[in-house]
Amino acid sequence: MRVVNLGVKVGGRKVLENVNLYIKKGDTIALFGPNGSGKSTLMNALIGNPKYKVSNGRIFFKGEDITEKETDYRVRMGMGIAFQTPPAISGVKLIDVLKKIAEKRGVSEEKIYEYAEYLNMTDFLEREINKGFSGGEVKRSELLQLLVMNPDFAMLDEPDSGVDLDNIALIGEAIKKLLQRDLPKRRREKSGIIITHTGNILDYVDTDYGLILYEGRIACIGNPYDILEAVRKNGYEGCVKKCLREFKNPM
């Protein structure tokens, strides 16, 4: 995934400006930033949500310029996303959606039940999607759909928000499987972005590096654990100022 000088508007208001990003095959990054900094906007722009208008720059996936491509095209190419607060869908059973995904992706029906059991979601398959689900159950439902989809590039928007300790451990293991973080680095083919506000998911899923998105721009890059510690100590503004000082005065 490569993003070049990306600018994005939402409802006529510019949210992202001059965002540059390169994620190699097999790499997963942690994306930090305060509320309103543009983290979810970036993911929606990458997946092709039409409400998020690219005002400038380009998006490349697998070497192809997909800036003007529709969401369905990007998904067929191997992109997937788990939203922070996906909607409940009345009248649509989870199993029906999973079967449709499996059919499109050439995944056996047996895999659906294997992943459902892995995520403790077997009892939810005949229920309407996210209807009456707890926060942790919604997150597991999203991950179940992604596992069946088996994308090459997965984006997860705050998978640790509103999740208790029992669920976050299971979710962390599922994300590791999804992004092949349980394999040696040389064998990884999957890439991804994990947005996290609290950093709790990093206790269960390792990432290659971290980024801070601040006021619509990439403001800092480094070790995700060092970034998280700096944010907890100095806040985002203090952390960004520290990054800028060190960039200007590397010695």
Mind summarizing the main beta sheet? 6 strands, mixed
What series of H and E elements makes up the topology? EEEHEEHEHHHEHEEEH
**Coarse shape:** globular
What average pLDDT do the residues reach? 93
What structural category characterises the helix and strand content? alpha/beta
Strand content: 15-25%
Write out the strand line-up for the largest beta sheet, numbering strands in chain order: 6-7-8-3-9-10
User: How many DSSP helices?
Assistant: 7
Number of strands: 10
Stretches where pLDDT falls below 50 for ≥5 residues? none
The proportion of residues forming helix, as a percent range, comes to: 25-40%
The end-to-end span amounts to 32 Å
Rg calculated over all Cα atoms:
18 Å
Compact overview of the structure:
With 251 residues, the protein is α/β, with parallel strands linked by helices.
Task: Give an overview in words.
By secondary structure, the chain is of the alpha/beta class. Helices cover about 35% and strands about 25% of the residues. The protein is built from 7 helices and 10 strands. The chain has helices at about 40-45, 70-75, 95-105, 110-120, 135-150, 165-180, 225-250, and strands at about 1-10, 15-20, 30, 50-60, 65, 80, 155, 190-195, 210-215, 215-220. The chain is globular.
Q: What key attributes describe this structure?
A:
37% helix; 4-stranded antiparallel beta sheet; alpha/beta; 6-stranded mixed beta sheet; 251 residues; single chain; 7 helices; globular
Which helices and strands appear, and what pairs or packs with what?
Layout: E1 2-10, E2 13-22, E3 28-32, H1 39-47, E4 52-61, E5 64-65, H2 71-77, E6 79-82, H3 94-105, H4 109-118, H5 135-149, E7 153-157, H6 165-178, E8 191-195, E9 209-214, E10 217-222, H7 224-248
Parallel strand pairs: 3-8, 3-9, 6-7, 7-8
Antiparallel strand pairs: 1-2, 1-4, 4-5, 9-10
